[in-house]
Amino acid sequence: MTAASSLGSMTSAPGLGSKDVGGSWALWETLAKKHTDFGRPSVFEGNIDEAKWLSFTVTLRDPTFFNLMEAFTGNEAGTGGLVTFTDSNWLMSIVLAHQPHFINQPKDVHVFWGYGLFPDEKGNHVEKKMSECTGKEILTEVCGQLGFNEHQGLILETSNCIPCMMPFITSQFMPRVMGDRPLVRPVGTSNFAFIGQFCEMPDDVVFTVEYSVRSAQTAAYSVLGIDKEVSPLYKGQYDPRVVFDAFRTMMH
Ligand SMILES: Cc1cc2nc3c(=O)[nH]c(=O)nc-3n(C[C@H](O)[C@H](O)[C@H](O)COP(=O)(O)OP(=O)(O)OC[C@H]3O[C@@H](n4cnc5c(N)ncnc54)[C@H](O)[C@@H]3O)c2cc1C
């Protein structure tokens, strides 16, 4: 999912990588040529326009942005969910995690992360496609969405925003049919298995750490003959609270 990702800077936009960058897709393509049971990588790697997103990380050497966010959301960093700007043309979200986020992060430094799901749209405050924006322009759009214009100069001067283009970030969600993804243990194999986000496992949901962990458990326990259960799945569709919330949302 992070194959061929590329970074920009405060003054440059990131480039757009292709499936030939790195070796992740080549590894699966090589395997897939050997047997039809080893899946069809082209289903997932073939449409960058549908699969890409742009994310960004921001390092702030001044607390103003975090203070304004706490006043605006009522949440201390790390206690709320992500903040999605539903009216943003880029459909942008930001996440302020508990600080410090990194070991040895200095007390007067804050960091947050964000992303836009529609990087080829023009911004509401910056007249450019997100994919063509520098870190400075992305942070300008964030300030514009939040109405922090009065403090924008200080925030821009004391921050470093690094954009990251991820051409395959949602490739595992591309429309697929049975057989596009290999089973963790394709029938007849004895000494290898498929793990990660692109193998077939019943009921589980991709774009999660859990999916990779369960695929690795399935692979290791079965290849090595270990008598252990794979961690159980949470089946939200049978939880009355989830069903009730889903029903309420549908009725809105
Ligand atoms: C921006 C973003 C946000 C996310 N948010 C969430 C979230 O909120 N919740 C959630 O559950 N999941 C989230 N995910 C998904 C989650 O991070 C991934 O699904 C998970 O990390 C995949 O784990 P993995 O072990 O399959 O692959 P990876 O973590 O990619 O591990 C593969 C490892 O193999 C190494 N490797 C590659 N090639 C070789 C080689 N030839 N030889 C040796 N080593 C090699 C790589 O360096 C890497 O360390 C997010 C992912 C991204 C990118």
The unique ligands bound to this protein are: flavin-adenine dinucleotide
Coarse structural class? alpha+beta
Order of helices and strands: EHHHEHEEEHHEHH
| Rg, nearest Å | 21 Å
| CATH class term of the largest domain | Alpha Beta
Number of strands: 6
Helix content range: 25-40%
Low-confidence stretches: none
- Portion of residues in beta strands equals 5-15%
* Helical segment count: 8
Number of domains: 2
* CA(first)-CA(last) distance: 34 Å
Q: Major sheet: order of its strands?
A: 1-6-2-5-4-3
**Might you state the CATH topology name of the largest domain?**
D-Amino Acid Oxidase, Chain A, domain 2
Corresponding CATH architecture of the largest domain: 2-Layer Sandwich
Largest sheet: 6 strands, antiparallel
Mean pLDDT level: 96
Shape: globular
Q: How would you describe the overall organization of this protein?
A:
With 252 residues, the chain is of the alpha+beta class. The protein has 2 domains: 1-175, D-Amino Acid Oxidase, Chain A, domain 2; 183-252, no CATH class. The protein has helices at residues 24-32, 42-45, 48-51, 64-73, 135-146, 152-157, 209-223, 240-251, and strands at residues 6-7, 53-60, 83-84, 92-95, 110-116, 159-166. It has a 6-stranded antiparallel sheet. The longest helix is centred in the C-terminal third of the chain and has 15 residues, at 209-223. The two termini are 34 Å apart. The structure holds flavin-adenine dinucleotide (FAD).
